[in-house]
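Researcher: I'm preparing a figure for a lab meeting and need a structural model of a single chain. I don't have an experimental structure, so a prediction will have to do for now. The sequence is pasted below. Please return the structure as tokens so I can convert it later.
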Amino acid sequence: MLTRESFLNLLHPFQPFILGQKYIGPKIAQLYGIKLVFYGETETEGGSRVDPSNPKMDPRFFAVPRAEQKNIVIGKRNYQDLIDLGLTPSEIIPYLPVAVEGMIKSGIGVYYMSWFENWRSQEKYYYSMEHGGFELNPERSEGTFTKFSGLDGKIDGLQYYSTYIKFGIGRAAYDAAQEIRHSYVTRDEGVALVKRYDGEFPKKCHQDCLEYMGINEDTFWKTIDSYRSPHIWKKDVNEWIMRHEIS
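Model: Understood. Here is the structure written out token by token.
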């Protein structure tokens, strides 16, 4: 239900996952009296303006005053809207932030592992392969050129395809930007990879995503096309074309 509303109202099917991901660590820590929580890389790895000199996660990412816990909006739906749609409080609670008062009282610290060691996807792949028996995906992920990143969710491909539709930036663009930044590939090589793979439709799990969200093919494509900004896309007969190609 939450993923469906986030897809239809924001073209952001990942929003519920992101909220749950941020909240689950501190919530479990509170429940079991754990004092230390580690997440992986900081948001700066993805281009956000988080202070890279601070090893602790900003509490605003997972905690609010107790009186504001039910003020969250998911997929343009507030708490009461979600109740009216048929969700129960227990189904919504995992997506509500923790109370900052409880965090202060329990003394839980939430840190980024990437502050303590270099956190780069390729290097973590090699480390996991050597020490944890990790194996490459037999085929590259749709929409990009990698075989080792973001393999744990069927909706990943749809999320990146959504960003491509809304912003003209897909999974290959995100991956190539990091590869260039870390000097694994040149800019020209990165541009070539983006031109080849960015915007590839994630068909492998498409039907699973439709079933999970409870929408049909027609609703899916009408929603997708409604989020194409005219300064990014133009329609040539029956084909959508991006106005500006990366170069």
